[in-house]
Amino acid sequence: MRSASFRFPKPAALLFALGVLCAGPAAARDWSAVRIGVDPTYKPFTFKTPDGQLTGFDVDIARALCVEIKAKCTFVESSWEGIIPGLRANKFDAIISSMSMTAERRKAVDFTDKYYETPTLIITKVGSGIDGSPASLKGKRVGAAKATVQEAYAKGELAKAGATVVSFDSSQQEYLDLKSGRIDAVVVDKFDGKGGFLDTPVGKGFAFVGPELVDERYFGKGAGIAIRKEDTELRDRFNVALKSIRASGTWKKVADQYFDFDIYGK
Amino acid sequence: MNASYLPYVLAGVGLTLAVAVGALMLSTLLGIVAAAARLSSHRLPRALATAYATLIRGVPDLVLMLLIFYGGQIAVNAIVQRLGWGGETGSIDIDPFVAGTVTLGFIYGAYFAETFRGAMLAVPVGQSEAALACGMSRVQVLTRIVLPQMVRHALPGFTNNWLVLVKSTALVSVIGLTDLMYRAKQAGAASRAAFFYFVVAAAIYLAITSVSMLALRAIEQRHHRGVRA
């Protein structure tokens, strides 16, 4: 029995494949729906309520901005180390999660103008003899959270002066080790350190030391919204919205819910 | 001690179990196929299965998870954008649950392949020879003769792999899936009682593994009936 075989014309198949691959680029987006990437492990900026709702300064500012740019915003959770890769892999369109705008990060993503700025400080046990200067940390163990500007500073300045930098998943874990004495000092955001440690019962006997650290090389100039480099339209819309919520008092209203001091900085 | 996040953390158990069971099903299937391929008389299946078992077991689970989730997504984006299929967001999203479950299933398939290979080798060769002599096809030999007898030998290794798999589901927290581990981390950060929530998470994983061990021990005893020690 002979079976008839259908031979798909090879040249036609090749042309079809080429045609499909040469289809034009996707149409430009109209930004009526924006996905916002957050890592809700940073109280009081981005965290969860006991019933699993996203809340915090970053989240409320994001919601206010979305109202301004007339977009429907959804939040997408991501781990902190994966948040920039997630943005670049198009898992979300913007990161509003207390991300400091450093030169290093600017190589990978674009930022809007800042929406707040807080300094970094070192915390250590009272009477430990550490005054916060790199020299006083020689031979000591200093904690910092992975992929943060504080870690960049610790590795850049403190390790150079002879300190051992220990990296943690989150600032909460650093405070646990500081309390138990496994590390001698931590480099943290001033308000995370105050609200998350020094003002709690666990933080008794510890204090900030040294001056506020604002070296732009490591800390950038405040926290901004990270956007993919090619999405200039979205970045401009956010900048316009930011100016407008600052001017209208909405920014201050949100900030006053969480802080009783100014966190915008100069 | 702030325990207000307890319900939130406990709600993650369902997702953790879903990922674990999903990955178990995929890895058991891949394990049997790879083990059979490894014991095949043909060179190509044998080479592919050996490469799979060696490479996957040699790379850290975390690296594979990140590679597939972020790297895979970027690859999908590139293809999709060329074809113009993206729709509103310009990409087809790889769902984190699917990515996590498939990655874990793929990784543990390699470990199960080795467990099943050892178990298959423990079944006397005479069994397969007799089956072939009776006219059964290779697939029938595998499914009717080898697999049922292999189960008894595979159970200890299977139990072990399952326990490791359940604990490895914590890895999906790095791709943003709100499983038990990620929820414990979020609850710890929000309530300032990180230690408490990590202990709760540990206790839950221990409960899951303990129940698994009891159940699998009962199954093992059932399979040892009538077998001379």
Main sheet characteristics of chain B = none
Tell the overall outline of chain B: flat
Give the N-to-C terminal Cα separation of chain B: 53 Å
CATH class of the largest domain in chain A: Alpha Beta
Strand order of the biggest β-sheet of chain A:
4-1-5-12-6
- Listing every helix as H and every strand as E from the N terminus to the C terminus, the arrangement of chain A reads HEEEHEHEHEEEHEHEHEHEHH
Q: What value does the average pLDDT of chain A take?
A: 86
Strand content of chain B: under 5%
Query: Which runs of chain A of at least 5 residues are low in confidence (pLDDT < 50)?
Result: none
Contiguous helical run count of chain A: 10
Mean pLDDT of chain B: 89
Helicity range of chain A:
25-40%
Q: Name the pair of protein chains with the most residues at their interface, and give those residue counts.
A: A-B, 41 and 36 residues
**Assembly level:** heterodimer
Q: Which CATH architecture of one domain in chain B is right? A: Orthogonal Bundle
Walkthrough of the structure:
- The complex is a heterodimer of chains A (266) and B (229).
- With 266 residues, chain A is an alpha/beta fold.
- Helix content of chain A is 35%, strand content 24%.
- Chain A has helices spanning 10-21, 57-68, 83-88, 103-106, 149-158, 171-180, 190-198, 216-219, 232-248, 250-258; strands spanning 33-38, 47-48, 54-55, 72-77, 94-100, 110-116, 120-125, 141-145, 164-168, 185-189, 206-213, 223-227.
- In chain A, the strands form 3 sheets. In chain A, strands 4-1-5-12-6 form a 5-stranded mixed beta sheet. In chain A, strands 9-8-10-7-11 form a 5-stranded mixed beta sheet, with helices on both faces. A two-stranded antiparallel sheet of chain A has the order 2-3.
- With 229 residues, chain B is mostly helical.
- Chain B has helices spanning 6-10, 12-38, 43-58, 61-83, 96-122, 125-133, 138-168, 180-191, 194-223.
- The model of chain B has no long low-confidence stretch (mean pLDDT 89).
- Chain B is flat, with a radius of gyration of 21 Å.
- Classes of the chains: A alpha/beta (266), B mainly alpha (229).
- Chain A binds chain B through residues 20-21, 23-27, 29, 33, 35, 40-43, 47-52, 76-79, 81-82, 85-86, 88-91, 93, 169-170, 172-173, 176, 196, 200, 202, and chain B through 4-5, 7-8, 11, 66, 69-70, 73-74, 77, 81-84, 86, 88-91, 93, 173-176, 178, 182, 185-190, 192, 194-195.
